[in-house]
Write a structure and sequence with these properties.
Layout: H1 45-58, H2 67-79, H3 83-86, H4 90-114, H5 116-119, E1 133-139, H6 145-153, E2 164-171, H7 176-187, E3 219-225, H8 233-239, E4 245-247, H9 249-254
Parallel strand pairs: 1-2, 1-4, 2-3
Helix pairs in contact: 1-4, 1-6, 1-7, 2-4, 4-6, 6-7
């Protein structure tokens, strides 16, 4: 028999209450003191596609049945910390760039776009109407991710017109051929004959059909095969002299 409902012996209602619909929160209104995001710093699908297209065009002959085995061999050498074997084969270097550098370049491009403003007004811009040459040094950037990210993701905006860039890449492995193919792909016309077979890429979709992804006169890649850890202090200072930015993105990956 249930206990009577008395002030000293209350029965708690354990039934599930009917859910009440909560009003949807209103979107926050922009404050007058909130800085507006610059459209130049926002990554775009077109920029990402151009970066990926560069790798597809540069290494179009690598997209075959041998690519996966080459990547698996690379993974084995890298896991074993056998860097001489991993980076000693030219075919393996291209496979590495296809597998890892393409995706990294997309991410790096977004990062570099955020710091574009810091590069404005730096360099020898007092001559020739305020324009001139600028220099970026990429330490350990031989695989090409930083070069493509800088060229297509950060240094190609309208506010950079008139500037010419020297991108110096320093790496201990022989990445010269890889960087050369990437530079050629960025400066070449994106005609259908360069598109890899069985590719879904359509140059018209990003407005680059029969056009260059990059103005050849504005961007130059310089490669030096050197061990950065073996350089003396004076050599390192000479290497980075008159430089607007030094990148070491691969080192950050390892950390």
């Amino acid at each position: 028999m249930p206990a009577p409902k008395t002030p000293g012996n209350r029965i708690r209602d354990t039934s599930t209450p009917k859910s009440k619909s909560k009003p949807k929160p209103k979107p926050p209104t922009a404050s007058r003191n909130t800085p507006k995001s610059s459209t130049a710093s926002k990554p775009t699908t077109t920029t990402h596609q151009k970066i990926l297209t560069t790798f597809a065009l540069a290494f179009r002959t690598r997209f075959n049945a041998h690519l996966t085995p080459s990547i698996q061999t690379l993974k084995h050498h890298l896991y074993s910390r056998d860097f001489s074997a991993a980076f000693g084969d030219p075919a393996g270097l291209e496979a590495y760039s296809v597998r890892w550098s393409a995706g990294r370049a997309v991410a790096y491009g977004d990062v570099f776009r955020e710091v574009r403003g810091y590069l404005s007004g730096i360099g020898d811009g007092d001559r020739d109407g305020g324009k001139g040459r600028r220099k970026v040094v990429c330490l350990g950037g031989g695989a090409g991710a930083e070069v493509v990210a800088l060229a297509l993701g950060a240094l190609g905006g309208k506010d950079e017109e008139g500037w010419e860039w020297d991108i110096m890449v320093v790496d201990v492995a022989p990445w010269g051929s890889v960087l050369g193919k990437l530079e050629t792909a960025m400066k070449a016309s994106t005609s259908s004959s360069l598109v890899p077979p069985n590719s879904d890429f359509n140059a018209d979709s990003i407005g680059t059909a029969n056009r260059r992804l990059l103005d050849p006169a504005r961007f130059k890649v310089i490669f030096q095969q050197r061990d950065i850890l073996a350089l003396s202090g004076p050599d390192l200072r000479d290497l980075c002299r008159d430089t607007q930015m030094v990148t070491l993105m691969f080192t950050l990956n390892e950390l």
